[in-house]
């Protein structure tokens, strides 16, 4: 919105041209979401507490988590609101990738909202039935992927992998089911990673900062040509979204740090997980996403391995899944587990960015 408004003022006062710069708008989008969370986060938490929207803790979970029962949840609402407001102010609303990303963000958030709402209403940790949640996720993912497929360029169905400059395969129609599974899988992987105070917010800050770098260089023909990566003209504008999301996660972490005053809930984790995957599809970083979100891959893999092992062998591999609970039950303090997972997330981000030069 500011972008269009100040375009009109360029002819009267040239310094207003600063509002056209992508880096300027991205930085101020992050500052906007951060300030919104800081200024209104406490009020939203009090409102949630007044409505008795509190967390229900699984009885089979670590006993140390029982003290968290009743802590306000659905804090992801103010992440979504702050990002939407920032994008309306600082985003280029003529860019179709922005609208695709925002649609995915809000839609997955709506699924998470209903899931959280049912948990609060039933006063237990069971929200939407698993089949209902998956149907909703697949419906949103299919819609978003089809829009990308039919509106994207010739690069849309190409498959790029780290360390190779050229695409290894044109997936054609098969890109659609691949992309749908990636979006649904990433959304759930991020959701599984939300279990300790500050864990997911910190990991998401790292992931969105990494994606901000990738979207920026992917949207610039000079940088993408120099690095030998695919050039996607509209991808650069997603830098604004990535930094807005990073700023919102920093603001949320202020209240979510141990001991947490509020939890993100599925409304936050599903929306942020889904939008990460959508950004990777638009920028053609689908495979690299497995490296960027390496911790999320480990978390969901631990759940899959645990379930398969128990069904086939009647034995558990981990003390508890997802993986962060396993280390808690090994005796790691919650804060130690969180910080070590953040460090691991940072290492994955460094590896992902290093692939830009090593190819």
Rg value: 20 Å
Q: What percent of residues adopt helix (DSSP H or I)? A: 55-70%
H/E element order: HHHHHEEHHHHHHHHH
User: What is the makeup of the main sheet?
Assistant: 2 strands, antiparallel
Distance, first to last CA: 39 Å
> Helix/strand-derived class?
mainly alpha
Query: So what's the overall shape?
Result: globular
Name the beta content range. Answer: under 5%
In round numbers, the mean pLDDT is 89
Instruction: Give the number of DSSP strands.
Output: 2
Total helices: the number is 14
Strand order of the largest sheet: 1-2
Low-confidence stretches: none
Concise summary:
By secondary structure, the chain is an all-alpha fold.
List the helices and strands and how they pair.
Elements: H1 2-9, H2 22-50, H3 76-90, H4 96-122, H5 130-151, E1 158-159, E2 169-170, H6 175-192, H7 199-218, H8 221-227, H9 238-256, H10 265-282, H11 289-292, H12 294-313, H13 323-329, H14 334-354
Antiparallel strand pairs: 1-2
Question: What do you see in this structure?
Answer:
This protein has about 350 residues and is an all-alpha fold. It is about 65% helix and about 0% strand. The chain contains 14 helices and 2 strands, in the order αααααββααααααααα. The chain has helices at about 1-10, 20-50, 75-90, 95-120, 130-150, 175-190, 200-220, 220-225, 240-255, 265-280, 290, 295-315, 325-330, 335-355; strands at about 160, 170. Strands 1-2 form a two-stranded antiparallel ribbon. Helix 5 (about 130-150) crosses helix 6, helix 7 (about 200-220) runs antiparallel to helix 9 and helix 7 runs parallel beside helix 10 (about 265-280). The mean pLDDT is about 90.
């Amino acid at each position: 919105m500011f972008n269009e408004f100040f375009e009109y003022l360029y002819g009267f006062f040239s310094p207003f041209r600063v509002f056209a710069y992508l880096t300027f708008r991205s930085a101020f989008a992050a500052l906007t979401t951060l300030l919104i969370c800081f200024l209104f986060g406490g009020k939203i938490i009090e409102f949630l507490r007044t409505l008795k929207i509190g967390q229900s803790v699984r009885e089979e979970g670590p006993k140390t988590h029982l003290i968290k029962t009743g802590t306000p949840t659905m804090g992801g609402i103010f992440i979504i609101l702050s990002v939407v407001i920032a994008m309306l102010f600082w985003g280029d609303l003529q860019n179709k990738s922005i609208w695709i990303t925002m649609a995915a963000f809000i839609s997955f958030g709506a699924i998470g909202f209903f899931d959280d709402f049912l948990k609060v209403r039933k006063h237990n940790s069971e929200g939407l039935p698993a089949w209902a949640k998956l149907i909703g996720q697949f419906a949103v993912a299919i819609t978003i992927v089809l829009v990308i497929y039919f509106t994207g360029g010739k690069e849309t169905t190409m498959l790029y992998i780290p360390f190779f400059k050229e695409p290894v395969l044109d997936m054609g129609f098969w890109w659609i089911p691949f992309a749908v599974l990636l979006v649904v899988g990433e959304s759930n992987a991020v959701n599984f990673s939300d279990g300790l105070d500050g864990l997911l917010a910190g990991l998401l800050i790292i992931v969105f900062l990494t994606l901000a770098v990738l979207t920026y260089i992917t949207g610039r023909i000079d940088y993408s040509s120099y690095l030998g990566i695919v050039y996607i003209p509209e991808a650069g504008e997603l830098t604004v979204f990535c930094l807005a999301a990073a700023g919102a996660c920093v603001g949320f972490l202020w209240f979510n740090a141990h001991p947490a005053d509020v939890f993100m809930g599925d409304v936050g984790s599903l929306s942020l997980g889904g939008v990460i995957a959508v950004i990777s599809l638009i920028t053609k970083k689908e495979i690299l996403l497995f490296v960027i979100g390496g911790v999320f891959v480990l978390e969901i893999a631990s759940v899959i391995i645990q379930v398969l092992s128990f069904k086939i062998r009647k034995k558990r591999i981990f003390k508890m899944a997802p993986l962060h609970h396993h280390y808690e039950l090994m005796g790691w303090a919650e804060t130690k587990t969180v910080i070590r997972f953040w460090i691991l997330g940072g290492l994955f981000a460094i590896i992902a960015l290093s692939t830009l030069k090593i190819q």
